[in-house]
Design the sequence.
């Protein structure tokens, strides 16, 4: 069920969230569908199995999300924001593919009624192989979804067992093919660094993913979150600890194999045709997150919803489901620009570093180590620097 929400300010009684840094031209939407058939041992996301949601009905939960959509439109107009069509929509979770096509269509229709969509809006649905069929993919295309992000994680059955994923590797290829046949762009999500995963196993997973001919691949290093079943298994010695050095080798292998396959890196963990939705996050554009525990960012105002589906559902029926609000100051905004943009191929503007008063000596040290490069007034990470990007950001902000 994820970690605890941060402590924030109360939602304003007048429902006004005034712009703090101007109004972005683009507007983006995230919809959190919090249901899963089983909870994976490594998962720290805000997800719930049937046993954990009590009286909440998955079959009509989309109505609560629609209520929040309708309310958000009033909040934005009442706060003076212009009507902006949706540039990208991302259904995440949880397992969004547990929602029927009709439920998803109802949400898309509500968003269209309240905001409309840009002509070439990117509309993505996360899906798990075990809850997806060729017929379902056809239905998704009719709903207007045009991009599928499939949670594969690994093509090694033993690794999937360690991660407690329930699908079989052989399910993936036919589904990717079916998605392409109905016109969906496809993306594959992979995880490396599971306890016991060898470099040979990871190579097999990368090669199998490349063979699918998908246009985008994400490869994330496994993070063992405190409080998860996997963390307890490692602590008890039931499974081996993860290996940071081996993970670095796996990242470099991913970059080599994916680049050779024509999938160019554009963010530390992403290769191929860029996800415009993820780019909106990295560039701190405006987005509204709907659903339990979803986070939003509107012109320097960050807010997040109540986590549990039941409390969210009860709240949205009569009032705001927002659990807390944070107003970002200028310094925090600059720090976040550094943290997020340095992860991308384009890097961060030198003007941001100057405004943060980053030490020239610290920068020069990373240039000398060939962790960073500068070109056209932008600083970006090298292939080696990508392995240490979080440490680089911390050092630049503290030295």
Sequence:
């Amino acid at each position: 069920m994820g970690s605890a929400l941060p402590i924030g300010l109360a939602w304003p009684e007048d429902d006004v969230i005034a712009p703090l840094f101007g109004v972005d031209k683009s507007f983006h939407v995230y919809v959190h569908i919090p249901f899963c058939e089983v909870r994976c041992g490594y998962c720290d996301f805000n997800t719930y199995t049937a046993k954990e949601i009590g009286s909440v009905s998955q079959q009509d939960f989309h109505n609560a999300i629609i209520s929040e959509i309708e309310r958000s439109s009033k909040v934005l107009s009442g706060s003076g924001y212009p009507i902006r069509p949706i540039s990208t929509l991302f259904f995440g979770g949880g397992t969004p593919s547990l929602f029927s096509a009709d439920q998803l269509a109802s949400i898309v229709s509500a968003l269209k009624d309240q905001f409309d969509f840009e002509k070439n809006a990117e509309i993505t649905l996360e899906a798990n192989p075990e809850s997806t069929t060729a017929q379902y993919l056809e239905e998704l295309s009719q709903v207007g979804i045009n991009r599928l992000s499939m949670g594969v994680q690994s093509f090694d059955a033993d690794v999937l067992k360690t991660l407690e994923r329930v699908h079989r590797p052989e399910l993936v290829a036919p589904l990717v093919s079916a998605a392409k046949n109905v016109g969906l762009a496809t993306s594959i999500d992979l995880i490396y660094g599971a306890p016991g995963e060898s470099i040979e196993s990871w190579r097999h997973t990368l090669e199998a993913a490349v063979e699918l001919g998908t246009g985008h691949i994400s490869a994330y290093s496994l993070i063992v979150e405190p409080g998860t079943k996997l963390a307890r298994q490692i602590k008890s010695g039931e499974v081996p600890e993860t290996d940071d050095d081996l993970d670095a080798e796996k990242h470099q292998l991913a970059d080599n194999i994916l680049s050779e396959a024509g999938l160019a890196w554009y963010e530390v963990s992403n290769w191929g045709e860029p996800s415009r939705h993820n780019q909106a996050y990295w560039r701190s554009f405006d987005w509204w997150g709907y659903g339990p525990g979803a986070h939003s960012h509107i012109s320097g105002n960050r807010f997040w919803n109540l986590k549990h589906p039941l409390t969210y559902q009860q709240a949205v029926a009569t009032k705001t489901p927002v659990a807390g609000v944070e107003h970002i100051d200028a310094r925090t905004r600059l720090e976040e620009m550094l943290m997020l943009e340095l992860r991308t191929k384009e890097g961060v503007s030198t003007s941001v570093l100057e405004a943060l008063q980053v030490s020239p000596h610290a920068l020069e040290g990373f240039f000398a180590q060939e962790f960073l490069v500068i070109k056209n007034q932008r600083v970006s990470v090298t292939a080696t620097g990508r392995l240490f990007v979080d440490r680089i950001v911390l050092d630049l902000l503290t030295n």
